[in-house]
Amino acid sequence: MYRNLAACHPVFKLLEPCLRYVVSVCQLTRDHLISKAGPLTQLLSVGGDGIDQLLKNAYKEFDFRNLVFPVSLSQRGVVDAHTLPNYYYRDDGLLLWHAIMSFVEEVISVCYSCDDDVRRDEELQAFIQELHDVGLPFDPQNGEKNHGVQSFIGGQKELVAIVTAVMFSATCQQAAFNNSQVDYVGFCPNAPMSMRRQPPTEKGRSDMKTLLCALPDIDAAATQAAVSFTLSQIGKDEACLGQYPDDYFGDQKCNQAIVKFQFRLTEIEKQIKERNRIVEVPYTCLMPSKIPQSLAM
Q1: Is the pLDDT of residue 143 over 80?
Q2: With contact defined as beta carbons under 8 Å apart, do 293 and 241 qualify?
Q3: How confident is the model at residue 296 (pLDDT cuts 50, 70, 90)?
Q4: In 3D, which of 269, 262, 297 has the Cα closest to residue 285?
Q5: Which residue has the higher pLDDT, 196 or 140?
Q6: Packing angle between helix 88-111 and helix 156-168, nearest 10 degrees?
Q7: Are 138 and 55 in contact (CB under 8 A)?
Q8: How far, in Å, CA of 264 to CA of 268, rounded?
């Protein structure tokens, strides 16, 4: 993105706030979390080599199109609210997905009057070409499949889909995981990263004593809690989703799109709060006021 898009490019303006810390976060993860002496390497039962293999296996199957939130829900069979009611991650996520998409559509329609404008944008096409060739390369001989990114953007609709998927993943998806990990992963028995004994093979042969013997020891449990807490923190100066400096785009229509986006996020926040008042366990992970503008820790 930084190599191909000018800082004033509309796609750069949309993506940069969401991606500005990605390289730093990835480097910190490699250097500290999953290094040979890193806490995850020590905690996870698969160890460092296992982490590398899991990542390689995941990359082989990665498809950029799965970042499209409605598609992901449909593939997992959880999109129907009648079949699976009270799935607040889905419900709140869809509200945010459509809000982001509407915002992106409005900005793109201002900056590109037709599909030909998209096709003739040399900076944009260089960006997607490099993402295809360098960012997400695939080797069929190594069992890898095409990762769902084309080498050319053919029009406005395709561009909106790509930008929306990236923005949603770097903000809302990250927040859904980040805001819940202390509650879910911080309590070791709920999601132990390793087990000291094999799981039972017969019903009725386990009790509290055998369970405690199988769970990680107190040092590992404390480390897991500390890691989950540390990773869930965000910077005190971090902006929330939809917050931009004054006259961010330098264009009145685009700046008006920001105002509409912010209003829609405010309405979503009100809707979530109203629902949470009447549910037994409130779901707050995707409240817009708790979603950082960028992928960070």
Answers
A1: no
A2: yes
A3: low
A4: 269
A5: 196
A6: 140
A7: no
A8: 6
